[in-house]
Design a protein that fits this description.
Blueprint lengths: L4 H4 L4 E4 L2 E4 L13 H13 L1 H10 L2 H26 L4 H6 L1 H24 L2
Antiparallel strand pairs: 1-2
Helix pairs in contact: 2-3, 2-4, 4-6
Length: about 120
């Protein structure tokens, strides 16, 4: 019996009952830590961009893509929070003078930056 194209390229089969199933495995991916931004990106890809999600998954590039999104989002988040806080006068002196108002303003800044990053980095 002639070999199939799969067998010619080095593929193998395993008998499962009466069926020959190809031995398929996903490529190994490097392990890099992911956190909230990467998890949001993963959820977004699964729900709204299934083709891109499956292409990244089967090519072995999903974890590195998510880790890159995590790193970029985290650095952008820190930079934007600092810029917004400086622009609005939310300083350490303001914190010492009026702690509760400082907390309110910083929460406001962080929430706005969170929305910006979600729009620019996660939902693209």
């Amino acid at each position: 019996m002639a070999k199939t194209i799969f067998e010619q390229m080095g593929g193998t089969y395993t008998m499962q009952g009466d069926y020959c199933l190809p031995d398929l495995t996903l490529p190994t991916e490097e392990e890099r830590p992911i956190s909230v931004w990467a998890q949001r990106r993963l959820r977004y890809l699964k729900q709204h961009h299934k083709i891109l999600y499956y292409n990244l998954l089967t090519s072995g590039k999903l974890q590195s893509h998510l880790a890159d999104v995590e790193e970029e989002s985290q650095s952008l988040f820190l930079r934007l929070v600092k810029q917004y806080a400086e622009r609005e006068g939310v300083t350490e002196q303001f914190k010492a003078d009026n702690l509760m108002e400082w907390v309110r303003k910083m929460n406001n800044v962080r929430n706005r930056v969170d929305e910006v990053i979600t729009e620019k980095m996660i939902c693209i």
